[in-house]
Specification:
The complex is a heterodimer.
Chain A (H helix, E strand, L loop, with lengths): L1 H41 L6 H4 L2 H14 L3 H31 L1 H16 L6 H8 L3 H25 L3 H10 L3 H38 L5 H10 L3 H29 L15
Helix pairs in contact in A: 3-11, 4-5, 4-7, 4-9, 4-10, 6-7, 7-9, 9-10, 9-11, 10-11
Chain B lengths: L10 E12 L8 E12 L3 E5 L6 H8 L7 E6 L2 E2 L8 E3 L11 H11 L4 H14 L15 H13 L5 E5 L7 H18 L2 E6 L2 H7 L2 E5 L6 E6 L17 H13 L9
Parallel strand pairs in B: 3-8, 3-9, 6-7, 7-8
Antiparallel strand pairs in B: 1-2, 1-4, 4-5, 9-10
Chain lengths: 277, 270
């Protein structure tokens, strides 16, 4: 009898949870759906279709691009550029941010220079990078990598410097040497900052790569979008943009997973992206 | 680490003519904090240091831990001069200072990990220390899941785990509420009875100093000097929850208070 009651209660509870999660999903997708419907309606009625295309056309175009395999070469090039620039930027930013954070003397000399370079609009450097690194993937990797680097660098630098002197003193008395201080105190303390920087850097990696490809390239989604817009093909432009959007969302999801793994010690309210529960 | 060249059989710690100046603000004279401080912490004894706030009590702890080099004078730990960071001494800071990215167990294991002790032994010794501070069952909790009193217990366990012969405690119970504080004092007394360690305990609470100590050092206002050393001969164990029922407590408290009050400029009630 009691057993039945509890299973019944558990059943109701899981049903309620399922309903709530359905409700949340509904709430999440509603604005998007409204936008798409409004777009579909406005196209050809309020705005000329040649300007904004329409969702059904874009969907068909996306399907064709993947079905015929036309998009794959562009996707591969841009994907490579994104992954390389992001990885290089994150690693370089982490290394330099950590080094300067640990050594105030080094920081006093180098930080003003980093600050000055940070102030340069990186996009203005795109033509120069093309000259230096060619029209292949490396000019884009360097451009996007620089943007990623600065964001990660400043966050890691701030994270390492946020470590309380008293915690360091305590660790020293407990027996820590310099290497152990890094491994057990400075790096874990900087981890939330690193992840914040990595998250902020995702859209910048995409911007860097696309701007690079717009400037001059032989392949890639940026070139695809640029070509489509110069031939009055808005459906293709939007198709390209939706693919970029998917890139950003996938990278964000990966960053969230990394965050959950590395920062499971944090109280839930402090997490940058809260779990939807 | 200090090489024990001539272990002093009597004193775990001795402070010899310690002076400490801190650089003043731009254009001002250096700030003199400690002015010729000398006293001993005899082996297996509990010595408290009390003084008005800002008098440099915590500075003494910093010096004994080797985190601060005194301007003049020297500290001997087990007979040898403290020159660098003192890794053989136990240290319980004002704030619990647990590492938030480590679980309770990992925090307690931390000093052993730093010493390169094998995981199995680490775990066993940490468990023993955790049991001693009465926190079994919470090994996998992170510090934000623990109360202030529990965090304090962890910081004590983290110190007990490497079995230091001498312990420095810097107002460890200052931030706790009155009830938790009494429980902690009670437990500390019980733990120390079994450890046989020598303790230097900094506080601004006279009751706490009298109840826990074998001897109380009273410091003056800044620049601090030793006003008096009052020995407390109350029998142990002492009931931390009922200080006023202990014969001799009121007299001991009065002796400390009468010296301490002279530093506070309080008028006697008419």
């Amino acid at each position: 009898m009691t057993e039945q009651l509890t299973t019944h209660a558990a059943g109701t509870r899981s049903l309620r949870r399922a309903l709530m999660s359905f409700g949340r999903t509904l709430l999440l997708v509603t604005p998007g759906v409204i936008m798409l419907v409004a777009w579909q309606f406005a196209s050809g009625r309020l705005v000329r279709e040649a300007y904004i295309s329409k969702p059904t056309n874009i969907a068909r175009r996306l399907y064709d691009l993947f079905a015929t395999g036309e998009i794959w070469p562009s996707l591969k090039v841009t994907g490579e550029e994104l992954v390389l620039s992001y990885a290089i930027g994150v690693v370089a930013g982490l290394l330099l941010g950590y080094a300067l954070g640990r050594s105030p003397r080094l920081a006093r000399v180098i930080e003003p220079y980093v600050m000055a370079f940070y102030g340069i609009p990186k996009i203005a450097l795109a033509p120069l990078f093309i000259i230096w690194f060619g029209i292949g993937i490396w000019s884009k990797v360097v451009l996007a990598g620089t943007m990623v680097f600065f964001l990660v660098f400043y966050n890691v630098y701030a994270g390492v410097r946020s470590v309380d002197r008293e915690v360091v003193n305590l660790a020293l008395v407990l027996g820590a040497n310099e290497r152990q201080l890094g491994r057990h105190i400075y790096l874990p303390a900087a981890a939330p900052y690193l992840l914040m920087g990595m998250r902020m850097a995702i859209p910048y990696a995409v911007i860097g790569v696309i701007v690079g490809e717009f400037t001059s390239s032989v392949a890639g989604l940026g070139l695809f979008i640029n070509y489509a817009s110069s031939t009055y093909d808005p459906a293709s432009v939007f198709a390209g943009i939706f693919i970029l959007l998917a890139f950003v969302m996938i990278m964000n999801a990966l960053a969230s997973r990394l965050e959950k793994r590395l920062l499971r010690w944090r109280p839930p309210s402090q997490n940058v992206s809260q779990e939807a529960s | 680490m200090n090489v024990v060249s001539d272990p002093d059989p009597q004193n775990a710690l001795s402070f010899n003519a310690i002076r400490q100046n801190f650089p003043g603000l731009a254009g001002e004279a250096p700030l003199s904090v400690l002015n010729d401080i000398s006293f001993n912490v005899p082996r297996r004894k509990f010595v408290s240091v009390i003084g008005p706030s800002g008098c440099g009590k915590s500075t003494l702890i910093q010096i004994a831990a080797g985190l601060l080099k005194p301007t003049l004078g020297k500290v001997l730990h087990n007979g040898s001069i403290v020159t660098g960071v003192n890794r053989t001494i136990g240290f319980v800071p004002q704030q619990a200072q647990l590492l938030p990215w480590k679980t309770l167990m990992e925090n307690v294991e931390f000093p052993l990990l730093l010493r390169g002790i094998k995981p199995a032994e680490r775990r066993a010794r940490a468990q023993e220390a955790i049991d001693k501070v009465d926190l079994s069952g919470f090994e996998l909790h992170y510090s934000h899941q623990l109360s202030g009193g529990m965090q304090k217990r962890v910081s004590i366990a983290r110190m007990l785990v490497y079995k230091p012969d001498t312990i420095l405690m810097d107002e460890p119970f200052g931030a706790l509420d009155a009830q938790t504080r009494m429980v902690m004092q009670h437990d500390l007394q019980a733990m120390l009875a079994s450890e046989g360690a020598s303790v230097l305990f900094v506080t601004h609470d006279i009751t706490e100093a009298v109840m826990l100590s074998d001897s109380v050092i009273i410091l003056s206002r800044r620049p601090a000097r030793v006003l008096a050393e009052v020995s407390i001969d109350l029998p142990r164990p002492r009931d931390m929850f009922e200080p006023y029922t202990i014969p001799g407590f009121a007299e001991a408290y009065d002796r400390v208070w009468s010296i301490f009050r002279s530093e506070l400029n309080v008028k006697r009630a008419a």
